[in-house]
Amino acid sequence: MVPALDELQASLERSRLALGRSVRQLLARDRERVGRLGERLRTSPRLLLERRRLTVEASGARLQALSPRATLARGYAIVRLDGAALRDAAAVTADALVDVELASGGFAARVQEVRG
Which helix (DSSP H) or strand (DSSP E) does residue 108 occupy? Predict the structure, then answer.
């Protein structure tokens, strides 16, 4: 039995409407996606800049904490002999003149005795 022309036309019309709905849904979804991507493109430079700023601030804080000035502020001193920082008492002889740097100012000192 051959389907009636009316049935074929109705089926074709339903298929056409369904195809149109599908295309509209795909277009709406793609428009939404493009909108989200556009927003990401607009905010990405700002976010990247903020991340870099935080990284620079964190690096600055680490450098500040590790700086010789921060060490001096905690009550330590830098002792220099002929301009070079001393790390070993064996590098100094009795009667040597050393410079002592503190958090606020400094002074010269003469070594009386070397220990260590």
Answer: strand 106-110
> Under the phi-then-psi rule, with left for phi > 0, alpha for psi from -120 to 50, and beta for the rest, what region is 95?
left
What secondary structure, in 3-state letters, does 32-79 show? HHHHHHHHHHHHHHHHHHHHHHHHHHHHHHHHHHHCHHHHHHCCCCEE
Reference 100, options 91, 92, 110; nearest CA is 110
Lookup result for tokens 């428009």: 31
Alpha carbons 115 and 69: distance in angstroms, whole number: 26
Largest CA distance in the chain: 123
Query: How confident is the model at residue 6, as a pLDDT?
Result: 87
pLDDT digits (tens, 9 = 90+) for 2-50: 678 889 899 999 999 999 999 999 999 999 999 999 998 998 999 999 9
